[in-house]
Amino acid sequence: VLLCHLCRYCVNVRLVGGHSRCAGRVEVLHRGQWGTVCDFGWDLVDAAVVCRELDCGEPVDALGNAHFGQGSGPVWMGFVRCVGSESTLKDCGSAGWDRSFCDHAKDAGVICSGNICTLVATPNPCSGTVEVLHRGQWGTVCDVGWDLADAAVVCRELDCGEPVDALSDAQVGLGSGPIWMNNAMCIRLVGGSRCSGRLEILRDQSWMSVCDAVFDQQDAEVVCRELDCGAPVQVLGAAAFDKGDTQMWTQEIQCRGNESQIHLCPTSLPHKYNCSHDNDVGLVYRVNVRLVGGHSRCAGRVEVLHRGQWGTVCDAAWDMTEAAVVCRELDFYDNYGVRLVGGSRCSGRLEILHDQTWMSVCDAAFDQQDAEVVCRELDCGASVQVLGAAAFDKGDTQMWTQEIQCRGNESQIRMCPASQKHNVMHVRLVNGNSPCAGRVEVLHRGQWGTVCDYSWDMPAAAVVCRELDCGEPVDAVYGAHFGQGSGPIWMSVFTCLGTESTLKNCGSAGWNKHACTHNYDAGVICSGE
């Protein structure tokens, strides 16, 4: 007899030892016992999943070294490698339960933003005195420069519709605590669509253009989050959306990329660049609309992305004007993209659109991190397997000649770095008595490095032997059997099935994520036949 307990609202992660519910040491519940998470490989992508699972807003910091004190009990998880789209921490890849190679001195922690804005002093959740959370304390906003544009940001953040009025002089009631903000900074995109155009910032009741020399990808991510425009696709300079006729913003914005609004980003003193409207920065964001169930990409049921979830549009008052907006919004994506052919919507042979031509991708130039980005771009969840050797039949297109080098956290494949031409051989055996025996080394970003022997086994050895055309695996050796290597230790904690065409296609802790020294360099002996 099997009895299962289904708990819809059970919490399997918690934050302990922090100053609020949304900050602290990360603990997960497994087999009825709470345990901690090792900080090896712990980053903001992993923290984002925890914050989402706890309904705690955006990640502010991902902390290690038992920042919130050492926990007790088991260290349940280590080498966590979230994509960022998972609904729970347990859905992320890791070394496996209770396989962390870690002690409590390395307990991971998280600080989430929580709800950083609220309305108080009235029973209506969508009207009241504005308060913001900063450094763990709630405070008010000064009404100098406060107007409907500022009010619109608050209404959008609280999912309260459109602003009706922007009140001043404490008309709703006096707040308490510090006055955190003055001259609130609002933003807009001009000369394009709602989610593309020239960036302008409102300060002291005047709109200002921003110089392209003081604006980067991290700043763009914050702008897109504040405008609810998805992920940034391109940061364009040289007045790509025409020259503005406003003043120029004189400070350098220095966002980390995880802030919820631009006004939370640090700014420096006036920047040293001599900027004019020839340098106005523009932004293009990922499309937030799609067509589903039609006979082509350009026909189907309209769905929009809001707060990470796709939903439909009611047809009340729906007409050709609205349809034209959808068609225009989707047209931007005609010149590049990815698709899977020969399988289903979320499985198949990968092809990349470049210069209006679809191209197949070589399996030697593609790994697990690249696959995570493709799955995210296609809204297909987490990647399960990277298959080589034309598993979905041979394509009849040109071959993609560059090596894709994603970190795994990009929103689209076109945002990943790429080398000019891929090197087909990415693994070698060093210091053995034949070409088919030795210390395993892999080539990543132009540099050879070793492999840690944690979880190194015969399926992993079989992949190396096959990749080198060295026959069957005879032994998977440990402890720097073929001598210690030098340079980086690129890979660790393998979950090879044994059928992968390259070692890069095996699951692992991620590039350069390990708790290893060269004393543990892995090696292989192949049959050579």
TrEMBL record:
<feature type="disulfide bond">
    <location>
        <begin position="406"/>
        <end position="416"/>
    </location>
</feature>
<feature type="domain" description="SRCR">
    <location>
        <begin position="13"/>
        <end position="113"/>
    </location>
</feature>
<feature type="disulfide bond">
    <location>
        <begin position="211"/>
        <end position="275"/>
    </location>
</feature>
<protein>
    <recommendedName>
        <fullName>SRCR domain-containing protein</fullName>
    </recommendedName>
</protein>
<feature type="disulfide bond">
    <location>
        <begin position="496"/>
        <end position="506"/>
    </location>
</feature>
<keyword id="KW-1015">Disulfide bond</keyword>
<feature type="domain" description="SRCR">
    <location>
        <begin position="187"/>
        <end position="286"/>
    </location>
</feature>
<keyword id="KW-0812">Transmembrane</keyword>
<keyword id="KW-0472">Membrane</keyword>
<feature type="disulfide bond">
    <location>
        <begin position="465"/>
        <end position="526"/>
    </location>
</feature>
<feature type="domain" description="SRCR">
    <location>
        <begin position="289"/>
        <end position="417"/>
    </location>
</feature>
<feature type="disulfide bond">
    <location>
        <begin position="51"/>
        <end position="112"/>
    </location>
</feature>
<keyword id="KW-0677">Repeat</keyword>
<dbReference type="InterPro" id="IPR001190">
    <property type="entry name" value="SRCR"/>
</dbReference>
<feature type="domain" description="SRCR">
    <location>
        <begin position="427"/>
        <end position="527"/>
    </location>
</feature>
<dbReference type="GO" id="GO:0005886">
    <property type="term" value="C:plasma membrane"/>
</dbReference>
<dbReference type="Pfam" id="PF00530">
    <property type="entry name" value="SRCR"/>
</dbReference>
<feature type="domain" description="SRCR">
    <location>
        <begin position="117"/>
        <end position="186"/>
    </location>
</feature>
<keyword id="KW-1133">Transmembrane helix</keyword>
<dbReference type="GO" id="GO:0004252">
    <property type="term" value="F:serine-type endopeptidase activity"/>
</dbReference>
<feature type="disulfide bond">
    <location>
        <begin position="255"/>
        <end position="265"/>
    </location>
</feature>
<feature type="disulfide bond">
    <location>
        <begin position="452"/>
        <end position="516"/>
    </location>
</feature>
<dbReference type="GO" id="GO:0031638">
    <property type="term" value="P:zymogen activation"/>
</dbReference>
<keyword id="KW-0325">Glycoprotein</keyword>
<dbReference type="InterPro" id="IPR036772">
    <property type="entry name" value="SRCR-like_dom_sf"/>
</dbReference>
<keyword id="KW-0732">Signal</keyword>
<feature type="disulfide bond">
    <location>
        <begin position="38"/>
        <end position="102"/>
    </location>
</feature>
<feature type="disulfide bond">
    <location>
        <begin position="82"/>
        <end position="92"/>
    </location>
</feature>
<dbReference type="GO" id="GO:0005615">
    <property type="term" value="C:extracellular space"/>
</dbReference>
